[in-house]
Amino acid sequence: MKWFVPLLLLAGCAGPLGALRVATPLTIGDQAFTLRSTDKASADTHRIQSAIAKATPGLQRWGGLKEPVTVYIVDSHDDLETAVRRHGFTWLRAWGRYDDVIFQAPSTWTTKDEFVEQLVLHELTHCLLFQRSGTRDTWYLKDIPLWFREGMAISTAGQAKLYPSLEDSARWLQQNPTLNAFRNGEELSEAQSTEVYGLGLHAFEFLLRRYGEAHVNALMSTMRAGGDFEAAFEKVVGIPVERFQKDFENYLRLRAFRGGSRRRLNAPPREGGPLRYQGTE
Ligand SMILES: [Zn+2]
User: Fold this and answer.
1) For residue 155, what is the enclosing H or E element?
2) Distance (Å) from CA 12 to ligand 1 centroid
3) Distance of CA 229 to the CA centre of its chain
4) How far is the CA of 237 from the centre of ligand 1 (A)?
5) pTM given for the model
6) CA dist., res. 188 & res. 185, Å (int)
7) Largest alpha-carbon pair distance within the chain?
């Protein structure tokens, strides 16, 4: 699938990644990283390095990384787009895969370390998801949908403020009844990344609230044992993804997140069982 072109194909000497000749090893706990940049002593390299050190504890929630990660720091947004072979994605700042991440040099887009730290944790969460859901040879075959990948990364990195609120997402869903951000997240994200990522965040957090962190960890290990996302989801959560999507969309439409008179909608379902709304639909 085009979204997951293995980075090896992109790391040829002629491309922007080939120009990153300075390698800086970094070990945080028992986790190994290699930073690749044009300048070991640059402020950008230091900022990414310190953000990695701050990010790794946040990954323990999901069991931590399993493999060493190579971190590329390219000098410009153009270099990032060239390296990932996607163009016109002006909002893109980084690109994470199984065991590597490419970052656009932070100095080209922000002065705030907080944003860099969140972005680094976000991207390393992607690496963790892929490492825990598959092997180097199988991770990109798991068809993990964008709503789950981005929802997990945004949630873990504490980036909710950068995305639409639950109310905004509910309104967007109602104004775009024919769009299916669960199934067509990749295509929709090209023009409406903020809305699609926001919906992914709220869907992931809805999953977390209903089923808990243990289900997310079980989902990853079930994928790693074999099968793709859809099969693993149904096995672990107990309902097909489509059913979960309907439950989530009802939760938004009914504004069940507001509590109050609809508080009963927030009652937890039986473990692994389908949600049963008692409100009007
Ligand atoms: Zn992401």
Assistant:
1) helix 146-156
2) 24
3) 14
4) 23
5) 0.87
6) 5
7) 61
Taking the C-alpha atoms of residue 120 and residue 44, their distance in angstroms, rounded to an integer, is 13
pLDDT value for 260: 55
Burial class (CB in 10 A: 0-12, 13-18, 19+), 1: exposed
Question: How many whole angstroms from 153 Cα to the centroid of ligand 1?
Answer: 6
Low-confidence spans in the chain with pLDDT less than 70: 1-14, 260-281
Cα(272) to ligand 1 centroid in Å equals 27
Q: Are 132 and 166 in contact (CB under 8 A)?
A: no
Q: How far apart are the first and last CA of the chain?
A: 37
Ligand 1: distance of its center to the CA of 121 in Å? Answer: 10
Looking at residue 110, what is its pLDDT? 95
From ligand 1's centre to the CA of 31, what distance in Å? 21
Burial bucket for residue 201 (CB in 10 Å: 0-12, 13-18, 19+):
buried
Q: Which residues of 25-36 are buried (b: 16+ CB within 10 A; e: fewer)?
A: eeebeebebebb
Tokens 């692994």 found at: 272
Q: What are the structural domains, with CATH classification, of the chain?
A: 1-141 (3.40.30), 142-281 (no CATH)
Q: What's the confidence (pLDDT) of residue 14?
A: 58
The pair of structure tokens assigned to 198 is 């926001």
Q: How far is the CA of 175 from the centre of ligand 1 (A)?
A: 25
**Å from CA of 202 to ligand 1 middle:** 14
Distance of CA 7 from the midpoint of ligand 1 (Å): 16
Which pLDDT value is given to residue 190? 78
Distance 123 CA to ligand 1 centre (A): 6
Q: What's the pLDDT score for residue 218?
A: 97
